[in-house]
Request: fold
Amino acid sequence: MRSKISQLIFSILLLLSYSASAQLNTSSPYSRFGIGDVESQSMGRSSAMGGVSIGLSLPFEINITNPASFSAIPQQVFLFSAGVKSRQVNYETATETMSSNDNGITSLNAAFKLNKFWSMSFGVNPVSSIGYNVYAEDSVISEEYSGNVTTNYIGTGGLTQLYLGNAFSYKGFSVGANVSYYWGPLTKKTISILSDDLYSGYLTDNRYSNIGDFYTRIGAQYTDSLLGKYKFTVGAIYENQKDLKAKVTRFTTSNIIINTIIILDTIYNDTIAVGYYGLPQTYGLGFSVYSNKILFGFDYTFSKWSDVNILGVKPDYYTNSSIYAAGIDYTPDYLSKSFFKRTSYRVGARINYSNLKLNDIQLVDKRFTFGLGIPTKSGSKINVAFEIGSRGTLDAGLIKENYYGINLNISMADRWFVKRRFE
Reply:
């Protein structure tokens, strides 16, 4: 047993060290705004249920959305969960289309119960992702000169969280908190090329934002019986508005070619700002009703992005966001010897009125999800979630994204600190 636990902990640490430098990939042009695309914290079962998680309190699953849920973990059980994601995205404008495949790690988490009242979890999860590459073309005409200008906007990086969560429970009530360290580079580059038959000029402007700060989410849940046959859990989460410390450096160079003469110059190389990237005040409410066979859940989350500042400026593209999610899980018979009866079948939906408002239009993300919870002989569970959805619109010169993808999560449980009766 000790050997298995040591191997498991070593694997966790190895994966965590790898994930520290790995971001969930995105190729969306909308990720150029602020901290980038904000990632969902749902995992495992909830990914196939539209992201429902605030009111979920289940014994063999890690739910980082509501830290109070850690109290449901049984004693002498160590849980580990890892997830990956792949998504195909088709981008559409009024005149063009293109597609991209986005892949990445979505979760690396562990949890266990310290005693009857106290549970703990830790792990690494992506918070946001930046990954755009956009071209724009224009022309310059004056009395003495005419030429073409091509501008390439490139962004990479995103935020990652390393968290430690604690939960405490008593007679159906549980409260918890995740204390996270958010860090990550946000890199935004602009390359402008001006050219004609005799002259060409290159201007490259690089801006690096290095972010690192602590952030806290608190949660609460209450679980009780309902009509003797069912149980229900109601939950709530809260995050206060927070400014993450950031240091922004700028490196700008020019490269001018006239005939055969090349002129290179460094225009700027210095720290241009030491300030903050804001995160919004957020609260969420959710509930679930469940029996041995069926589970239904619903979530609502609100984030006040309109009050957020970035480096002392309130962006005009941020607006308040609201997320609605609902989902169902059905398992015919957990104790059956039949594989199909022990398999869980899930479906859900999610609508996200996002934090971006561009050209007076708030972007809306609509998603339909479905999937399976596949049992294994070792006791682990493979959670497979499929998603089909769209974000954005073709109105007002914006981009519409149509996507479909798969989330794969593996949940493992092992007993530890069990005294041997026989040597």
Observations:
- Residues 2-415 form a domain with the Porin fold (CATH 2.40.160.60).
- Confidence is low (pLDDT under 50) at residues 19-23.
- The two ends are 13 Å apart (CA to CA).
- The first strand starts at residue 37 and ends at 38.
